[in-house]
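## retry 2 of 3
previous attempt timed out at serialization; input unchanged, resubmitting
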Amino acid sequence: MKQILQTIAQELNTALRNVEAAVQLLDEGATVPFIARYRKEVTGGLDDTQMRDLESRLGYLRELEERREAILRSIREQDKLTPELEQKIIEADTKSRLEDLYLPYKPKRRTKGQIAIEAGLEPLADALLGNPELDPETEATGYLNPEQKIESSKDALDGAKYILMERFAEDADLIQKLRNFVWEEGRLTAAVMAGKEKEGEKFSDYFEHSEALKTTPSHRALAMFRGRNEGVLSLNIQLGDEASASPCEAMVADHWNLSFSNRPADKWLSEVVRWTWKIKLYIHLETDLLGQLRERAEADAIQVFSSNLKDLLLSAPAGPRATIGLDPGLRTGVKMAVIDATGKVLDHGAIFPTPPQNKLAEAGAVLLKMIKTYNIELIAIGNGTASRETDKFVGDLLAAHPELNTTKVMVNESGASIYSASEYAAKEFPDLDVTIRGAVSIARRLQDPLAELVKIEPKSIGVGQYQHDVSQTALSRSLDAVVEDCVNAVGVDVNTASPALLTRVSGLNASIAANLVQYRDENGMFKDRESLKKVPRLGDKTFEQAAGFLRVMNGDNPLDSSAVHPESYSVVDKIVQQCGRQVGSLIGDSTFLRGLKPEQYVDDKFGLPTIRDIIIELDKPGRDPRPEFKTASFKDGIEKVSDLQPDMILEGCVTNVTNFGAFVDIGVHQDGLVHISALSHQFVKDPREVVKAGDIVKVKVLDVDIQRKRIALSMRLDDKATPQDKASRDNNRRSGGGKAKQPRQQESENNNALAAAFAKAKQGGRL
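## retry succeeded, writing output
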């Protein structure tokens, strides 16, 4: 365990004692948000991101340690554990290295090599390997054994070859060298399967594609893996010129101190090396490295999704304002839901201002009446089907009535339909139609995106990159962590929060959240945090984890509406006693608070980081980390892709950020892409350096491909549009600078070719 903690401390660049304290807290049941916010003294100020990394690495390294112990136990039981092997296993720092070392000792079905050993051919293999001056045919005659089906020299030599092939292929140090070499020098090649050209047209970018394995971006890797899974593409790792011997064969030979000239056994040994690489090692390493590439691509994709989800959850709330939610549609009309400032449903219905009904006057009268009746400040319009038609209808109505203090806002409705049909929505609105529930969700997510989006499974929100191609378990784990961090960063009003929101609070679960809401319904609003302890199953440990993130607004104690933890109220009492003022008068008095000296209040229980946090919180209690609310204005008359023209400058909202750029909703039912190279005049390594989901941006239209529904945009407004013809567009969309895959050719079996490859590899310093 000590080694695990030291490894994590080194990776996080922090003191060992900080990691030890953090791990102890995690093992005791503390949550990441609680540790990051309220235990800074003992962790050295590790933030939530570092704590998440620590938690992830701790799990991996503990699994690694368990596997290490199991392998040592297995080899020890076989009585084959040497001090040297044990040391290598102890020093193994990855699961792949550990499995490489275990490979020769791993229980397996009888192989050809094992059968050959049982037939007594191992001395022949050892003799030819140790002395290439021996003639293989002559030596083999001494091992003929009809009872073991070794009836000729060829049978004996084949058996000896299988023995050496397995020995060579199970050498952990050799496998590690080859794995590193192939990763550094290999090229990932993709080709279309015969007859799949038409069916797999969406993968046409990769029909003839080749790029460096180690630098293949995650989005291209996942696209190719999807193409392979759908039977459209074949994927291979290519090394150098396929017409000649692989340099890896030379590496195998060098590792076993083999050099080939014209000695009697050289030809046979070179054949063993060639077969070892082609039949054993190449297939194993190709599978292994493609798996490694996929893992890395999945990790990147999950990180992209997590980052976008965080940005979306922490996007600006419009606040507690009376709102009408509109869920646009054509044939079925536009569904309406009116909610008050607290999110309570006041009214609902449907209007038909869109084709084919086009009942504009009637729909306008209904909407206008609702706006006036309920003093509506905001109209949230879902961005799905018929959204631009609905947006125009609402805009015309508001323009005709300038006396109204009402603003229309286009809202991303991803996941609203999933929520409306969910069990949670059915419990929340048992008497409302599914379509009306969707309109309610759209209105509420404008008021408070975080509070509403937590009701939807994170994977359904739709801000991911190849989200269905990655490990769903790993994706869910990462997204759940993001939701938890966001909810606790903002804090939760305990008297208005839904069970879904409360469930995400540090220390709470679905059962306790339900108990809390039930207690609130039966006993009225909470007056202070201390009364939370009366909730069934909300014990002292849970209270410790949750209390700082639960806010009691306008309660008996002003501190209960802040992020100051109840365990730290005594610090505020000291400040109050020293200055002779009431707590309420201290809150927000920046001049006074900035004059305090935090060092004066440090004691054995509360350190300097906590004291500073308390003073900052008193200055701006319950401050919301989310940005100011802003909206995008879509250009009138631009409602579909065909309305776009090159060089148009439009305003839009960033909906998704990937490793290769950002997608922007410009109001045409199809997001446009700002490629990473068009985000800024400066070099951009990560698009998130420039934009995040929810940002309002101005973009220029560079190119529109109506047939493929692709829109190229630029945030560099001085860029000139360069519309391309179809031929050049098809050529340019090979984003990797795709190189045609060369046909596989029969590899020469000439010893000189192997010797030349060996010499070339050594000359390049690769051996």
